[in-house]
Amino acid sequence: MQQYPFPGSGQKPDRRMIAIVAAVVVVLAGLYSAYYQIEPGEQGVVLRFGKYHRAVYNGPHLKFPWPVETLLREQVDRVRLLEIGYREYRGEIRPVMAEAEMLTGDKNIVVAPMNVQYTIRSLNDFLFNTRTPETVIHDAAEAALRQVIGSHPIDDAISERKDEIETEVREKMNEVVNETYRIGVNIRQVQLRDVRVPDAVVEAFRDVTSAKEDSARSIEQAEGYRNRVIPAAQADSIRLTRDAEAYAQRRIFVARGDSARFTQIYNEYRKSRDVTEKRLYLETMERILARQPKYIVGDRQGSVIVLPNTEGLGSLLEGGRR
């Protein structure tokens, strides 16, 4: 059987063609790696020979191919969650007591787990100002929480002023991570979770809480009693004062009237003493013997005598008349 050679067999490959194909492949690969696009919500950093060169933002961009320039990108608008005092694993929450237990301002121990939500503000600062930015943010959150809890009593942390504590922790965290370490993040929210006392002292804490509630109730009842009694006493005092003032004014007016009347009578008495004396005598006797018949006896000298109507005196007067 006759065999025919395969076309081109025995010929050496064209090295020039291979070089051209390889160059085209490299150029295409370089162009492919040189073009990139930053999506909305992302931020990129271009490294030139491993050193920061520029920051890039939303839109299409070009860069030198690798290994001259390298692109690092992150979703800066994505909200990241940081867990303090607990870890959530497959839907199960596991406490981390070494982070959660801390001392309050009134020397009580409290368990205060917390989560922190943050976003990246500057990718350059986030990547290059610290080696492990997540660890720095975690340590700053724990330190700020301990500092704020240590300046508040336990009642503030458990119920009364949790919002104020969260605000203080967020402000201190922003100050540490952005002004001190310049990590370039934005602490969006700080949220205290189930703040409580440790299990070993929960019964004693309940007794203390019950005693405080009883004390507060007693104080409230005493204040209510005071609020009822003091206004009533003040009203009685005002009423008594006004009654005394009215009585004083009334007595003054009566005294002034008596004085004016006495002065008027005295002036009339000075004008005609005899007539005035007789009139006063008759008015007085009339008032004294108001319910009895009276006899008025006069003599030639003008003297007047008022006598009561008795049986002996009546017979005597009748005989004298006969």
Briefly, what is this?
With 322 residues, the chain is α+β, with helices and mostly antiparallel strands. 53% of the residues lie in helices and 22% in strands. The chain has nine helices and 14 strands.
Core attributes:
single chain, 53% helix, three-stranded antiparallel sheet, 9 helices, Tetrahydropterin Synthase, Chain A, rod-shaped, alpha+beta, 322 residues, 14 strands
The top level CATH class name of the largest domain: Alpha Beta
What CATH architecture of the largest domain would you give?
Answer: 2-Layer Sandwich
What is the count of DSSP helices, taking H or I runs of 4+ residues?
Answer: 9
Work out the radius of gyration.
Answer: 56 Å
In the sheet with the most strands, the strands line up as: 3-2-5
Q: What spatial form do the alpha-carbon principal axes imply?
A: rod-shaped
**What structural class results from the helix and strand content?**
alpha+beta
Helix and strand pattern: HEEEEEEEEHEEEHHHHEHHEEH
Supply the CATH superfamily name of the largest domain: Band 7 domain
